[in-house]
Write the structure tokens for this entry.
Amino acid sequence: MAKHFLSGTGVAIVTPFLENGEIDNTALEVLVNHLIVGGVDYLVVLGTTGETATVSKEEKNKLLQLVNNYTNNRVKLVAGIGGNDTREVIASMKELSLSGYCAILSVSPYYNKPNSEGLFQHYKAIAEAAPLPVIMYNVPGRTGMNVSAATTLRIARECNNIIATKEASGNMEQIMQIIAEKPQGFEVISGDDGLALPLIACGAIGVISVVANAYPKQYSDMIDLCLEGKFNEAREAHEKILPIINTLFLEGSPSGVKAYLSLMGIVKETFRLPVVGVGADSKMKITELLNSI
């Protein structure tokens, strides 16, 4: 069976900032190279981990273009374009520079809390307008509402340009139902680092990861073992990296992963409000874990 172009480890990359709040182009290039050398399969630009909510449209264009340039066709690229205003999402897909990108990741609407029909119509409109294949993204912890298995399956069956879902609901029963009943050509991608192993065992094709920003080789090697069906070896690797995964969200993301990256000398531990760095206790735990590896 041919490998799906989104199989393996995708990384929702952080956005490095300088102390003055501007995008740190140099650190971004270092990060991109760090991830590619680490063996990840694709990069996701403008995801939640990239603090996209505080990035202007001009900066989004800049980030999309910079990452495309720095990547130089070495790995695939996915652009995060989503929101709670369907018309604005469609306009952004037409206005942003998508040269070099193979798909769009679009988060379900947040704050509005649409019903199932509203969610379906939102994704139907996006699918019809999108210039690239679309990955829907269900992350109830951030959006305030879950996209049910029934709604996801309806979207999968009726919206041909929506080719996958990034599932970060944490609801294994729901995700297994989607995997069991999905149509051919629609795939499931884990949105949780800690659940990627069991989800791949159930039929998911990979993960869009946060922890792989800091540990691309260790994490992508584990995912590759899963995809090869070598779950005993994968479980050993998973147990080693799980304590790191558990520290990433002690005080929210990307605060945790930027703490790791800062200690590694890859990006500065700088953010845009309202996001701030982790506190002293969390930083100590992160430092101890990093030094133990």
Notes: The beta strands are 8-12, 42-45, 76-80, 103-107, 134-138, 162-167, 187-190, 206-209.
